[in-house]
Amino acid sequence: MGVSQNDSCRMEGWLYLIRSNRFGLQYSRKRYFVLNDLLLKSYKSNPVTNIEDPVRSAVIDSCIRVTDNGRESIQRKVVFIFTLYNASNHNDQLKLGANSPEEAARWIQALQEAALKADMNKRTTVDGPRRDSQSLRLNCSNKSHHLNSSDWTYCSSSVADATTSDVVAPSSWTIFGCQNGLRLFKEAKDRKSHGKWNDHPAIMAVGVVDGTSEAIFQTLMSLGPSRSEWDFCHYKGSVIEHLDGHTDIVHKLLRRDWLPWSMRKRDLLLQRYWRREDDGTYVILYHSVFHQKCPSQKGYVRACLKSGGYVISPVNQKKQSVVKHMLAIDWRFWKSNLQTSSARYITIHMLGRLAALRELFIAKLGDCSSSHFLEEHVRDKRLHQIEEVKVEIQTRVENGKNMADMEEEVAKSPSEHASLMGLNDASDEFFDVSEPLDYDQSEDGWPSDFGPEMYSQDTRHAKLSSAAGFVKKLHDLAVHKRGYVDLHEKAKEDALLCHYGSTLPKDPTFNLPCSWAQTDPSTFLIRGETYLEDRKKIKAKGTLMQMVAADWLKSDKREDDLGGRPGSIVQKYAAKGGPEFFFIVNIQVPGSTTYSLALYYMMDTPIENAPLLESFVKGDDAFRNSRFKLIPYISKGPWIVKQSVGKKACLVGPALEINYFRGKNYLELDIHVGSSTVARGVVSLVVGYLNNLVIEMAFLVQANTPEELPEYLLATCRLNHLDISKAVLVKP
Question: What is the per-residue pLDDT for 118?
């Protein structure tokens, strides 16, 4: 499905409309969507002229959010799902699918920018037409809602930063050799770790592959027969369980012929997680797990992958990719004295798959045989004929509608077309023709990865997977690695009373486990005074606020507005009537037990002295969502966690649901991690290693104009080896 993007304000192409019929069966319909002037239009065929009436249209305003739901199998076709929903009414939503992750990413970016532009127009346009921001407006007219074009400051806010990291940190890798054109690295030892992460050292191979990051990603994700073209270790693979669009459980049987002659066959049971970065980089992460549906196999010894995966970064105008392949694996030798030498040799040998992958793409570039072109020509011609037949059938059905039906549709009140729920109209359930499969599903296509369990999902009710459902699936999984703790096990009764602002101790020496401290601000990079001209970032010199307290809580529900609760540190200062102002970040991790990490920051000067902060505190939620930024950094921990979290600044509002609570002397941000499947996958991985991590974070309000630059940090924090068992129970 082709996608064209003429400019930042227009996007068009074929997408799948994902719906459920009256029996709860999930299905898809192919529609041509056009995003232009903050209006999203839907057609049943590619419109020939701009005056052609759309089937449906929706206004994109500042209340619109877009979530990435990953890849799903719909009618035995793998599509990459994203959902539009109204922040003020979550039932008002539209679920769409694209053929590739790149198409989905372009649509997500375009829709997010449209929502930001709507917010800018709302602020700068005084005489423009009023909009209903309470729902995603749908109508059957092609009349566009013309808006004044937003100023250049909007564009500056949507441009991705050129830097790949916003943290100043030493490299955690040391090169030790080169083999088959691949550079080999080992994880640098941490003197303070006392060998904790070096029992089975992490080794990484790095090479350049002549292929796009998307093509390489598809090749690496496939578990079908095509994998044998490059992966000499792989014998057979299958998906045991599909957890969500970004996470699944896979089982891999390894070949015997590449292992030492005295070594028995090995297999791996892994949890696989993937995501796409804004710059086109793909991250695939693995770690070993237990699963009831896949016990130990006869004739195989189950190895333990402590951490591993791939990072595929586009280079050379996205024509090539730098691929990093990392493994830290326990091969489960029966004699401990064989581990040091043999394990390292086997791991390096396995990393050699990256060289085979490189040669595969070189061979693909050289495949210019006439039979190849003939096959492509026949396939394209067949697809063109299929599309012509579909359009003809659709036209006949449309022309065959009787006048009574048409009059009934015209007579509908505007409210019946007022939200995107109208696109799920049951009358359209049997109107369209089911789309035939466009390609062979058994070999190189995406569906080769999915087993019967994956296909059975077509019969489930179509709805966003909730955090509780995701957690329930993970509940029976015990991760087979050191330091793993199940966050979602049933919370035990805690006799401690909760005093908000004092449940997590402070330790400036960084030696006390399960404690907090402030991080050196110079660790983080922020936009400098000339950022809009040179895109350069500078080291932060300080913070506007000081961290004064932290809470580590658990409950059977979300704990909102901690700053407004009696007896909290915020209310104690409010009772004194002083000038202190508090900024609270409450990170909520949902599940059968909900965990809350609340960070309290304070300033004793008027917020009017910091105009950007004042605008943020006094602004509306749309403005806050478009400006609040987080810089994460795992300064101590395994590679898989560092890679999953990253070191890049990100706007939190467009990705996660944030509830804002404004009090007399405070502003609290309650960040709901469960509102994003991507975030849930990252957090579930982080929690598995939580008591072995040192987590550092910085918070700031993004500066977009010359008047707002340079940026400044609001605050920082450092969390030392948090312990799930030490979270304090919030009693009702």
Answer: 77
The answer to whether position 379 is within a domain reads no
Q: Which residues of 506-520 are buried (b: 16+ CB within 10 A; e: fewer)?
A: eeeeeeeebbbbbbe
Element (H, E) at 482: none
Which residues, in sequence order, are bridge partners of residue 182? 179
Instruction: List the CATH number of the domain containing 105.
Output: 2.30.29.30
Closest to 552 (Cα-Cα) out of 505, 494, 495: 505
Nearest to 205 by CA among 399, 351, 100, 29: 351
d(CA 412, CA 445): 43
Please report how the helices 344-351 and 353-365 are oriented relative to each other, as an axis angle in degrees rounded to 10.
10
Q: From residue 573, how far is each of 27, 41, 614, 710, 715 by CA, in Å?
A: 56, 52, 20, 31, 19
What whole-number distance in Å separates Cα of residue 25 and Cα of residue 463? 11
> What secondary structure letter does DSSP report for 479?
B
Kindly state whether residues 360 and 246 are assigned to the same domain.
yes
In a domain, 479, yes or no: no
Half-sphere exposure in the Cβ direction for 64 (13 Å, CA): 31
* Structural domain boundaries enclosing 584: 515-729
Distance CA 206, CA 354 (A): 8
User: Which two three-digit tokens encode residue 110?
Assistant: 């375009």
pLDDT in tens, 254-298: 999 999 888 899 999 999 999 999 899 999 999 999 999 999 999
Rounded distance between C-alpha atoms, residue 623 and residue 612, angstroms = 11
> Within a domain: residue 694?
yes
Other Cβ atoms closer than 10 A to 334 = 8
**What's the Rg (C-alpha) of the chain?**
27
> Residue 56: which pLDDT band, with cuts at 50, 70 and 90?
confident
CATH classification at residue 303: 3.30.530.20
Whether 153 and 181 share a structural domain: no
Domain count, the chain: 3
Residue 307 tokens read as: 């951490």
**Residues 103 and 227 placed together within one structural domain of the fold:** no
Helix, strand, coil shares of the chain, percent, nearest 5, are 30, 30, 40
Say yes or no: 131 and 177 in one domain.
no
> What pLDDT shows up at residue 62?
80
Nearest-angstrom CA–CA distance, 464 and 677: 9
Q: What is the pTM of this model?
A: 0.75
Q: How far apart are CA 335 and CA 596, in angstroms?
A: 44
pLDDT tens digit sequence for 1-11: 656 665 556 89
212/102 Cα distance (integer angstroms): 11
Q: How far is CA 589 from the centre of its chain?
A: 15
CB within 8 Å of 90: residues ≥ 6 apart: none
Is residue 713 within 8 Å of residue 526, measured between CB atoms? yes
Q: How many CB atoms lie within 10 A of CB 304?
A: 19
Give how far Cα 92 sits from Cα of 56, 474, 704, Å. Answer: 15, 29, 31
Same domain, 331 and 434: no
**One domain, residues 197 and 329:** yes
Q: What does the DSSP 8-state code read for residue 693?
A: -
Q: How far apart are CA 585 and CA 63, in angstroms?
A: 22
Upstream peptide bond of 710 is cis (omega within 30 degrees of 0): yes
377 in a structural domain: no
